[in-house]
Design brief:
With about 80 residues, the protein is mainly alpha-helical. The chain contains three helices and no strands. It has one domain. The chain is flat and about 45 Å long. The two termini are about 25 Å apart.
């Protein structure tokens, strides 16, 4: 993510753009990083199954929502 921001600054003149695909990619990255860190917190392991379902919904929104439903400069249309 750091090198992506640096590349974006060189390519577009900004570290981060408020494009739907970029925003949802950051959301899913932080979500799965949180899921990985739940393994180190024993009391939170009971939240893993619901988090997996929520993660799949976020994954679908990231791909289907930003590709076909929400306009984006990164759309696959």
């Amino acid at each position: 993510m750091i090198f992506g921001g640096l590349w974006g600054y060189v390519a577009w003149g900004s570290y981060f753009l408020w494009d739907a695909k970029v925003v949802w990619s950051v959301i899913i990255w932080f979500f799965y990083a949180t899921c990985l860190h739940l393994d180190y917190w024993p009391e939170a392991k009971r939240f893993k199954p619901p988090m997996a379902i929520l993660g799949f919904i976020i994954l679908l929104m990231t791909y289907v929502g930003t590709s076909f439903l929400i306009g984006s400069s990164h759309s696959f249309r």
